[in-house]
Amino acid sequence: MKDFLKDLNKEQYDAMVHTDGPSMVIAGAGSGKTRVLTYRIAHLLSKGVDPFHVLALTFTNKAAREMKERIIQLIGDGEARNVWMGTFHSVFAKILRLDGHHLGYPSHFTIYDTDDSKKLIRTIIGEMNLDPKVYAPNFVRNRISMAKSHLINPKLYAEDPEIQSADESMAKPLVKEIYAAYQARLKRSDAMDFDDLLFNTYILFRDFPEVLFKYQKKFQYILVDEYQDTNHAQYLIVKKLAAKYENICVVGDDAQSIYAFRGANIQNILNFRKDYPDYKLFKLEQNYRSTKTIVKAANKVITHNKEQIKKTVWTENEDGEKIGFIKAVSDNEEGKLVADAIFSTKMNHQLANSDFAILYRTNAQSRAMEESLRKLNIPYRIYGGQSFYNRKEIKDLLAYFRVVINPNDEEALQRAISTPSRGIGKTTMQRIIVAADEHGVSMWEIISNPQKYDIKINSGIANKLNGFTTMIKSFAAEVKKKDAYEAASTIANQSGLLKMLKDEDTPEADNRIENIEELLNSVKEFSERGAEAHEGDLESQGTLEEFMQEVALFTDADKEDDDNDKVALMTIHAAKGLEFPYVFIVGLEENLFPAVQSVSTRAELEEERRLFYVALTRAMKKVTLSYAESRYRWGQFSFSEPSRFLEEIDESLLDIPHKSHIPAPQPASNDFRQKNTGYRPVKRKLKPVQTATSGRKTESRHEEDDMSGLMAGMEVEHAKFGKGKVISVEGSGPNKKATVFFNGVGNKNLLLRFARLKILK
Q1: What is the pLDDT of residue 2?
Q2: What pLDDT is recorded for position 635?
Q3: Can you tell me the distance from the alpha carbon of 399 to that of 393, in angstroms, rounded to the nearest whole number?
Q4: C-alpha torsion sign, points 649, 653, 655, 658
Q5: What is the SS3 assignment for 481-505?
Q6: What is the pLDDT of residue 554?
Q7: Distance between CA atoms of 117 and 120, rounded to whole angstroms?
Q8: Quick one: DSSP state of residue 740?
Q9: 10 Å Cβ neighbour count for 738?
Q10: Who has greater pLDDT, 459 or 189?
Q11: Using only C-alpha atoms, what is the Rg of the chain?
């Protein structure tokens, strides 16, 4: 036996040495499951097992690479390199390279990525003379992917009455024909998409038993990481491969099953005991990552799930700090408070930026966090996604803003004219570019006057160009008459960008719509809170041009460097498998986390709770939770209530210096949730004092800025302009304004809800 065995605790050791027969390792967060997998393989090889007989399946290439490197460190280079180890897709692609000829594929078949697939589908839709707005390529691709993950080929798809009924109800009855044509075109091109790598491996094993037997004999020991994340096809393939020897070890944590939207089926791990009645269960319950406080909080939360394999995670680590809690008035203030907390914690404890992570439920939430971090010059990096202002849909809409403000901005013009598609093709655009170069004028000038510059285009194209220029000119007129939000909302709706995404009707399109919504929210806040941004000075008009000037500071591309000392920003889904000393989980509000679309059934709600569990267990030293009392939704100011998950944490674990009842707002969705799910809204006694950088106790915005007693003649003080005298007061409610004379400054028109005046006498 190798000396490395002493590196394991008893449970890890037992799971490692039990190599014969089926076994399941339920590994709590931070319990060392990767170590068990690695040492188990090393142990097999040290016993003399042929490495070619060992198959290890992971979900990321990074995980496979790290495991192989660790095994090499343990037992040397020679044996470890011969283990079949990799992701499901990479291992199955290797099998198909070797034996795909049974299905009619050459060993050099091409693998299409997502963009390749969408491009091919788009071509087929065009060839079938179908409306691409009805049969949006993204939607069609998602339907095909869904079918393949459930092992449904084009023939079965067309014959399934439930599927056909669903397509017909969405006015897309010809998806079956597109699917058939798509699959035929892939085959003709000797190509497979990512879903085919699973689908065809299953078909290969199903229809060619001699091939299945070959690999059953070959893979005498099978290890599967993150088994809770396997889908139906992966589950069936692994079951077939393991049928001969049943030396299968699956490792995972049902409490971290969070990928149902990608087809993962938690029942695969829950039903393992039914598939292998003589299985051996090992529980890794000692957490090496987090403090006792974090472990206790996570345990308490996950106990509310009914569908689970019971375990009690524990740790010998220190108690650690209590869980921090931030209540903000708005999502923008939430961003400020989180950034302030990171800055102060970093300074007080001499920490690195990379010690911090901000986790959120949706990508759109990164906007407020990014802006606040930038204002404090805290470097950050978006993981698992792009920076908010660099996302395609955001750049598309900003391109319209830019070209409306400055039609000679040719980069913005080319982006705007091509998205959404207007039937103005590359050939036409090339002719316009050439003409602009020849005549020394802008592309806008050519487009606005194609006849003057003798551009060789037919009347149909000329009409489309005229329609585009007319639209841009009308937007320019709107910008001059309306505030930033009204103009931006008009452009987003009338440009066709939103309609294009809505027509796609896919989860990806929904996410892009949310991002556009978040951008419009930012414009709305700029319009209404512009006074606050400029210390209450209403001489700023809050125009779209001013907004773009401000955004330009956020959209300047940061130069990539080798410095990894940056705060991590990512969705919780992207954070799985990672760890950070300090974690901020933001946006803990009903209808955001848990998501509004995930509370209609217990199964959906339990997945949201598992997602929260994953977020909590990313932290090593401290977790801070935050929520905002209000957010903008499509330009409408709406109140939020704290997430029900906050109620599930023992209050003794939370750092809440001052507590009082929060009057829970009652959005319309509450009635739906109570009627359809039986879950009641949160009524926790939570109200922390940390809600503003000044350190004042924060009540609601309306209470804080209530200037109902302000009258002409009063003396006041402003943070920027100093002491002054009120000349006049007009308006009411949130639109109440005052004219104040400040010494050395003169008269200033102030919006009282943002001016934060202090009445002196």
Answers
A1: 54
A2: 67
A3: 10
A4: positive
A5: HCCHHHHHHHHHHHCCHHHHHHHHC
A6: 55
A7: 5
A8: E
A9: 26
A10: 459
A11: 30
pLDDT score for 634: 67
Mean pLDDT value across the chain: 84
Cβ atoms 14, 286 nearer than 8 A: no
CB 312 within 8 A of CB 299: yes
The single-letter DSSP state of residue 556 is S
- Whole-angstrom Cα distance, residue 126 to residue 185? 14
Structure tokens at 581: 């000393």
Q: Is 639:665 a contact under the CB 8 Å cutoff?
A: yes
Structure tokens belonging to residue 487: 């103009």
Judged against a pLDDT cut of 90, whether residue 57 lies above it is answered with yes
User: Does residue 384 have a pLDDT over 90?
Assistant: no
The residue type of 758 is K
> Which tokens go with 324?
């921090």
CB 659 within 8 A of CB 687: yes
DSSP label at residue 685: -
**Cα angle value 216/221/225 (rounded, 5°):** 110
What pLDDT score does 120 carry? 84
The residue-averaged pLDDT of 628-640 equals 80
Query: 681-690 pLDDT, tens per residue?
Result: 333 434 333 4
Which helix (H) or strand (E) segment holds residue 633: the answer is strand 630-633
CA-to-CA distance for 361 and 571, rounded, in angstroms?
Answer: 6
Strands 324-328 and 636-639: unpaired
| Eight-state DSSP code of residue 559 | P
* Residue 664: per-residue pLDDT: 40
Tokens of 555: 């959209």
Instruction: State the pLDDT at residue 234.
Output: 93
Which is it for strands 380-382 and 356-360: parallel, antiparallel or unpaired? unpaired
- Characterize the bridge pairing of strands 23-27 and 280-284: parallel
pLDDT in tens, 656-668: 865 433 334 333 3
3-state secondary structure 708-744: CCCCCCCEEEECCCEEEEEEEEECCHHHCEEEEEECC
- Alpha carbon 601 to its chain's center: 22
pLDDT exceeding 90 applies to what percent of the chain? Answer: 45
Contact call for residues 180 and 94 (beta carbons, < 8 A): no
Report the Cα 237 to chain-centroid distance in Å: 29
Judging by beta carbons within 10 Å of its beta carbon (0-12, 13-18, 19+), is residue 441 exposed, middle or buried?
middle
Q: Which tokens is 582 given?
A: 């300090």
Q: How far separated are the first and last CA of the chain, in Å rounded?
A: 84
H helix intervals, 100-208: 114-127, 137-149, 154-159, 161-169, 175-188, 194-207
- Tens of pLDDT along 436-494? 878 877 888 889 988 888 788 888 888 999 999 999 999 999 888 888 899 999 999 99
Q: Could you tell me if residue 147 is left (phi over 0), alpha (psi between -120 and 50 degrees) or otherwise beta? A: alpha
Beta bridge mates, 249: 23, 223
Report the catalytic residues: 33-34, 225-226, 256, 618
Rounded CA gap, 386 and 584, in Å?
A: 19
Whether the CB-CB separation of 189 and 132 falls below 8 Å is answered with no
Tell me the DSSP string of 64-93. Answer: HHHHHHHHHHHH-HHHHTTSEEEEHHHHHH
For residue 698, what is the DSSP state?
P
When pLDDT is averaged across residues 151-165 and rounded to a whole number, the result is 94
Residue 629 near residue 327, CB atoms below 8 Å: yes
Segment 69-90 shows an average pLDDT of 83
